[in-house]
Every structure is written in structure tokens, then in C-alpha cells.
Specification:
heterodimer; A: alpha/beta; Rossmann fold; 10 helices; 10 strands; globular; B: mainly alpha; MetI-like fold; flat
């Protein structure tokens, strides 16, 4: 079930350093939301607050509120582990478990949720790999290590792993930045397909990519070195790329900085 | 003569000479020791009136020398393996605590303490074993004998503090720091991105360790254990103070039996006749071979890790 995310007045810190400040936004379900902005503007940090991965780093903490439908993710009774089972994540560099087979990689999340029967696992692994457009390439070597695949295939394996547990939201942190153009295209096609079932948030450095895959785009910026990153504006992707409200957004998308 | 623009630089010659010389010197010393040991051991082995590899008795100083390595080798291997079985799980626990659970400052202190433990002289462990552990082990040994006496290891009619088990416990404590220190290093090297992969799937910290840290660290832990095993087998003074120093092959670790090659050398060398010294040296050669085999096994496992290169991520 795709779900809506509502963020209000969110700050995130690394120790005493404030990395992002005062972020308020709504992420619509069954759509792709892209975060763009110059390096260090906090878009990846913000993404990681959405599944409570930010606090994995020692000293990192968050202030503010994130509602996933009617559930406050930062409520003190909420277990971050269960948040991450609902909000999946794909990382910048493909990171399949190197000691596991392709099959076990996809089944890894399922097994965390408790024992499941072998036939049940087989069914879910097959569906997930098909959904990730990888099934035809790996169906004959499911017992081979995942690290033997190409970079693009590994990244699709990671997407299969993330969707195998049927999350409500899928976060992608520059999922194509380590991939060649053909693999990038494969992932972008996949994103277009997955948005029918999931809420997708993607951080990207590639503005063409944001324009191609996303429905809404959020532009982040920071006032200067050491300043916290802020959300400058968020709107329909077509509007951001043709007629942004803010001068900074226009300067960034026209390549004047960043 | 015209000097070439590409002539060899002047520093090269002496430096090459010095390093090559050092390398050769090391090999020469090793060879000299080996030759010395063999030369000393051969007359004793010739004077032996029993079979060296299968005989249990050790009376090389008698007019009709009878001695064999069987009981000593058995005691060495058994006590070392027992020590390993006790030390490895604790060492892995300590290493995981330092690498993944403890707050950073506590982890630093603990790591330092572990290194310090590794530096305590072995005679101190031995004295502690004699003064504290031998009386203390009476209780746990009686417990094991009463409730687990059906296991041959803990069988026997009487229970002694000065036993194979007590020696193994001291050995376990002695090899714990080195295994823990190496395991900690290996666990710290587990790739962050693979750890994050499991966390992002909704793994608890323990599940993350099982999915991402332990499989990655396994080869390193195995070689750390092998290193510990080598140390346990070569350990001398601490166990010489604790072993009952008998010459029996006795699987019952709570009985008043037990000895090891190194402990026997330490206990016997002072009063040995020339033949007796030769016999002890021969036993030392056997220990050397056992240790060599263990180290080679460890290297084999480390070499296998290279093929295991999924961890290159």
C-alpha cells in the first residue's frame, strides 16, 4: 500500500552541526518525488530521516515531525526497525550482500519478518525479480553470488530486495550515479513502472533524470558553507523546470551554479 | 670514461647489500637452530629403547632410557583445543561488543584493556592459576562431574583442582585477548554500506551483525583462532605450574592427569642428563611440527578468503 508522507518543520543534526532546517513538505502516494540541489544541501540527509536511517550515524538526531498517513514516525513508541520495514531504501552504490546468493539477497528482508515457507519465498522472490526487470537475466543462476552481476544488475537486485517486503514507500539515494547510461535507463523505466504501486522518493544529481522520472520536484539549497540546507521550493516537475518561482531554483536548473 | 645519464644511483648498492644480508642472516640463524636441534635430538632418539611416537612414559634419564611423545602431544593438543573452545565464543562476544555495541569512548578504553591483557607476562597468569584458580576450580569441577559425568570428558571418581581443565581455563584466558583483538579489527572492517543495507531492510542490530558482519568476518575470526591455538600449544610457564605433570593419556579432564610438551621441557630440563636433554629437544621438534601444521592450516584458510572476494565491495 502506497502511503502519503507529511513532513513538518524538520531539522536534522550531526552532533552539534545542523545539516537541514525547517523542512515542510508533502510527498504524494503513487508518484515519484525528486530531490535536487547542489552537493551538501542536505537532500540525502533529509531522505535518510524518512526511514530513520539518519540516526544510525553516531551523534545524529532529528527534530520535527514526519507523518506516514496517520502514524508519527518519530513518536517515542515507534521502533525505527519497524519504520524501515515499511519505508524501503536503495542506496547510491549497489550493495547486495556479498556472501549471499541472488535468491537469498531478495529473500533477506522476508526472513527478517519471521519464518516463511520455501515455496512462499520462491513465489515472492520471483515476483520481486520480475517487478525489478531482472528475472529474465538471473532466473538460471539464482544460487550464484549477487556480487557476480554487473553494476546495473546489482542495483536492480537491490531494488528487488527492497520491494520484496512490500514497503509503503521506496527511497532512492542517487540510485544511478554509479551506473552507465544503459543501466540508468533500465532503472528509470523501472521507476516509472513502480510508481503505480509505491510512493517513490528519489535524490538525484542529474537534472535531466529528475525531469524524466518525477512528477514533483523539490529543490534544496544552502545559504553558504556550514549553513543548514533548506527546502527552497517544491512543485510540479514541469513547473520547476520551466517556470520556477524562486530565482535560486532558476539559477540552479539553468546551470549557473551547483 | 663518460658517465651515462642513466647511471645507477650510488645509494642503491649498499642498501641492496644491507637488506639482502639481513634476509640471508635470518635464514642462516633459522637453519643453525634447526641443525642444532636435530643434532642434539638424534643421539637421544637412538638411545631410546621404546618407540618415540607411541610411547607414553618419559624416563630418558634412566640408564635404560624409555621415552615417547604420545601422552605429551595428547595433553598439548587437548588442553589447547579446550582453551580454544572456551575462548573463541567469549572473544567474539567481546569483539562484537567493542566494534558494534559499546559507546565510542567505552570501546576505546576496552580495546586498550584487551591489548594490555595480551601484554601480561605468562608467569603472572601461571601464579594466578596456582594461587587462585586451582582452589577455585574445585567447585565448578565438582558440578561438571556430578551433572555431566556421563560425558567421558567430565567422568571420573574423584575431582581435582590441579587438572587438565584448570590448565585449559588459564590457557583460554591467555589467548582470549589476541583472538578478541584480531576479531575486533576484522569486524570493524565490515563494509558500512553492507551494514546499512541490512539496517534499511529493517534488521535489528543483532540481525544486522548476523547478515553483514559475521559472514564478512568469519575468515578473519578463524585465522585469529588458529593464531590463539598456536599460542596455547606453545605456552610454557603458566601451564608448567598448573599441570599435574603425569604421563598418561587421560580424556577425563577433571582427573589428576595432564601435561604438555612445553610444560614438560620447562619442568625437566634442569635435571636432565645429556640423553634427557636430547629427548626434550626431540619433543620440542614435535611441538614445532604441530605448530607449523596449525599455522599452515590458518594460512590456507586466509588464502581461501581471497577467492571469497565478494567482500571487496
Amino acid at each position: 500500500m502506497a502511503k502519503q508522507i507529511e513532513v513538518s518543520d524538520l531539522d536534522a543534526y550531526y552532533g552539534s552541526h545542523k545539516a537541514i532546517e525547517g523542512i515542510t513538505m508533502t510527498v504524494e502516494p503513487r508518484s515519484v518525488t525528486a530531490f535536487i540541489g547542489p552537493s551538501g544541501c542536505g537532500k540525502s540527509t533529509f531522505l535518510r530521516t524518512l526511514n530513520r536511517m539518519h540516526e544510525v550515524i553516531p551523534g545524529a538526531r532529528v527534530q520535527g515531525k514526519i507523518m506516514l498517513e496517520d502514524q508519527d514516525l518519530y513518536d517515542k513508541d515507534v521502533d525505527p526497525v519497524s519504520v524501515r520495514r515499511t519505508v524501503g531504501m536503495v542506496f547510491q552504490r549497489p550493495n547486495p550482500f556479498p556472501t549471499m546468493s541472488i535468491f537469498d539477497n531478495v529473500a533477506a528482508g522476508l526472513r527478517l519478518n519471521g519464518r516463511i515457507s520455501k515455496s512462499e519465498a520462491q513465489g515472492i522472490v520471483e515476483t520481486s525479480l520480475k517487478d525489478a526487470n531482472l528475472w529474465n537475466e538471473v532466473k538460471d543462476r539464482l544460487n550464484k553470488p549477487g556480487s557476480g552481476l554487473s553494476g546495473g544488475q546489482q542495483q536492480r537486485l537491490c531494488i528487488a530486495r527492497a520491494i520484496a517486503v512490500s514497503p509503503a514507500v521506496l527511497l532512492m539515494d542517487e540510485p544511478c550515479s554509479a551506473l552507465d547510461p544503459i543501466s540508468t535507463l533500465a532503472i528509470e523505466d523501472l521507476i516509472a513502472k513502480l510508481k503505480n504501486d509505491y510512493t517513490i522518493v528519489i535524490v538525484t544529481h542529474n537534472m535531466q533524470q529528475a525531469a524524466r522520472v518525477s512528477d514533483r520536484t523539490a529543490f534544496f539549497n544552502l545559504a553558504g558553507q556550514g549553513q543548514p540546507g533548506k527546502l527552497v521550493e517544491m512543485d510540479e516537475t514541469s513547473k520547476i523546470f520551466t517556470n520556477p518561482t524562486q530565482k535560486a531554483t532558476e539559477d540552479y536548473i539553468t546551470g549557473r551554479f551547483g | 670514461m663518460r658517465r651515462s645519464a642513466f647511471r645507477r644511483s650510488r645509494g642503491e648498492g649498499p642498501f641492496r647489500f644491507a637488506t639482502t644480508g639481513a634476509g640471508i642472516l635470518l635464514l642462516a640463524i633459522m637453519a643453525a637452530i634447526a641443525v642444532f636441534l636435530v643434532v642434539k635430538a638424534v643421539p637421544a632418539l637412538q638411545a631410546n629403547t621404546s618407540h618415540f611416537l607411541t610411547e607414553k612414559v618419559w624416563t630418558p634419564n634412566a640408564t635404560k632410557p624409555v621415552f615417547g611423545i604420545a601422552a605429551l602431544a595428547f595433553g598439548t593438543v587437548l588442553s589447547s583445543f579446550l582453551a580454544l573452545i572456551m575462548a573463541v565464543p567469549i572473544a567474539i562476544g567481546v569483539a562484537l561488543f567493542i566494534s558494534h555495541y559499546a559507546p565510542r569512548r567505552l570501546a576505546g578504553v576496552l580495546g586498550y584493556v584487551i591489548d594490555l591483557l595480551a601484554a601480561v607476562p605468562s608467569v603472572v597468569y601461571g601464579l594466578w592459576g596456582v594461587i587462585f584458580l586451582i582452589p577455585f576450580m574445585q567447585g565448578p569441577s565438582t558440578f561438571l562431574n556430578t551433572y555431566f559425568g556421563w560425558i567421558p570428558l567430565f567422568a571420573g571418581d574423584a575431582v581435582y583442582g590441579k587438572s587438565m581443565l584448570t590448565a585449559s581455563v588459564v590457557l583460554a584466558i591467555m589467548i582470549l585477548p589476541i583472538i578478541a583483538a584480531i576479531s575486533r579489527e576484522v569486524f570493524l572492517q565490515a563494509p558500512k554500506m553492507i551494514e546499512e543495507a541490512s539496517l534499511a531492510l529493517g534488521a535489528t542490530r543483532w540481525e544486522m551483525i548476523r547478515m553483514s558482519v559475521l559472514p564478512f568476518g568469519r575468515p578473519g575470526v578463524i585465522s585469529a583462532a588458529m593464531l590463539g591455538l598456536g599460542r596455547a600449544m606453545g605456552e610454557t610457564i603458566a601451564v608448567a605450574l598448573i599441570f599435574p605433570a603425569t604421563f598418561d593419556i587421560d580424556i577425563r579432564v577433571l582427573s589428576a592427569n595432564g601435561n604438555s610438551i612445553a610444560a614438560n621441557i620447562a619442568n625437566g630440563f634442569g635435571e636432565a642428563t645429556p640423553i634427557g636433554q636430547g629427548a626434550l629437544i626431540a619433543s620440542g621438534l614435535v611441538l614445532f611440527i604441530i605448530t607449523l601444521v596449525v599455522n599452515m592450516a590458518a594460512r590456507l584458510i586466509i588464502a581461501r578468503r581471497k577467492e571469497f572476494s565478494g567482500a571487496a565491495a
